[in-house]
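Record copied across here:
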Amino acid sequence: MAGSDRERAAEGWIWNENVQPFLALLARNAGYDFDDTDWQAVELGLEATDDEHPDRWYSYPLVGSDHHVKVHLAHAVGGEEVSVRVAGTCNPELLLRADTLIAAFATRLVA
């Protein structure tokens, strides 16, 4: 990932059970309709991920009417967390929303 993209990324981790609602809300903010087909693709893509190896992250684009973002996801080895990086937009408001969603979904109270 280019340095400028990394500078414009929201990063953190969320609990595994919060991945689907996280993506649905992020997609809504991007103007994208995240549906069951999207979730099935993400769920399959996440199976072989490992957040300790950059080449084993799964990326999923959310191309909405308002924004285009790419969400990078990977399971934490031996844990129930999923590392998340949201990049691809230079819109500071969307990145702030993504960062807020990551913080919110890092708690089990959200599920």
